[in-house]
Predict the 3D structure of the following.
Amino acid sequence: MQSQPKKFILPDLVSHCTFTLHCSRHRRRITGETKQWLFRGDNLTGRARDKYHGLKAGLLTAMCYPDAAYPQLRLCNDFLTYLFHLDNLSDDMDNRGTRSVATVVLNSLYHPRIYSPERIGKMTRDYFRRMIATASPGSQQRFIETFDFFFQSVTQQALDRAAGVIPDLESYIALRRDTSGCKPCWALIEYANNLDIPDEVMDHPIVRNLGEAANDLVTWSNDIFSYNVEQSKGDTHNMIPVVMAQEGLDLQSAVDFVGDMCKQSIDRFIEEQEHLPSWGPKIDADLAIYIGGLADWIVGSLHWSFDTERYFGKNGRQVKATRVVDLLPRRTSSS
């Protein structure tokens, strides 16, 4: 009988990504103010507060929206912090629980001026009212639609988890592009940079392909970085166990397989840009800012993954340098 591996080696995605890393000067300010916003009137104490500080969402926001003015950056950080909060909630929910949260959130987005007693509804209305003050109608619509897709997909994820289903790779990729929550964050690139790009441009196949390539890199690399924590909890909604099951690979081979897919998504992102048509000077300039925002997400998320304590605890810097991950033991139901 083959013994379980004790460690695995991460692919070198940081070196493969040659985009320049930027960071907003407003990082400290948004971190402090979002913290007050998140904890306002809440009983988050002890481990929940420690989790927030270890998350370092303000750093992720500052690196992914580096050119945003302070009010826009602050809203983006509120949303990202809230999205991680929702993700933590959905990890512990069945499909009925995710549906009830989805109902509150989506009602808050579609009817932002109606009072909601639920805290998650109040938070949703609060950031969305600020967003619609300056966001273009197209980016507002894309934000709501893609957030709706997010909830549909996490509901399906909850059903799969309850049934112990490991989907095939193609089905998993389609679902993961929505469970990642990246698509609403792409709408926030438009908002953060005060862009008003016509719908027909945003719907162009090459522009969609660029968003998809960025989503794939952020999402698949996240599956690699989060695998250790997730396997310790027995969670199989991750590309690595999907690939192990479908391709019959051991852990390291599956990590390498997904790592190659990540590198190909970066290459795909660069290649797609060479085929962009022109829509005239103004639209082309705005679109270049949007595509630059996708590149900021690619490079920012890669570096942030080693700064946050979400995946490697306080050992992120060491893991970034060595790329060696020691496998955590499986948790028992009581731990």
